[in-house]
Design goal:
This protein is 58% helix and 9% strand. Strands 1-2-3 form a three-stranded parallel sheet, sandwiched between helices. With 130 residues, it is mainly α.
């Protein structure tokens, strides 16, 4: 809830809410859309709000079932252009020792959209900060 106040006060702020709230939160949020008791639904609202430059990153995920659920959801279609893969992967390396397999799984789950979330979206995001 604090991030909502921050972006309201500073509407030009560019913000990445990493991990999308975490796998359990995202899974529950997808089962209960709009229920703001789940942090991931609050993130979805902020990402969807056209007044703000709020993004989320999913590259730290290794729960591929949650990612499949997200990739096939209507929410993903709504926020695809503000979903990133890449800024958060370094944390994955702390507990995942097969980074190549992780990338392979993401490519399989997101198909051609992987080029969007790992290519054009980060490129667009970086235009704000470089």
């Amino acid at each position: 809830m604090i991030w909502e106040k921050v972006v309201e006060k500073y509407p030009g702020l560019i913000l990445i809410l990493a991990h999308f709230g975490g796998g359990e939160q995202l899974n529950a949020a997808l089962d209960h859309p709009g229920d703001l008791n789940f942090w991931s639904n609050k993130i979805i609202d902020l990402v969807k709000d056209p007044r703000y430059k709020v993004y989320t990153d999913i590259s730290c995920y290794s729960d591929f079932n949650v990612l499949r659920k997200f990739a096939s959801s209507s929410v993903y279609q709504e926020i695809k252009r503000k979903t990133l893969y890449g800024s958060d992967f370094i944390l994955l390396l702390l507990f995942e020792n097969d980074f190549e397999n992780n990338v392979h799984q993401f490519r399989e789950i997101f198909g051609s959209d992987f080029d969007i979330i790992a290519g054009s979206n980060p490129e667009e995001f970086l235009k704000f900060v470089l």
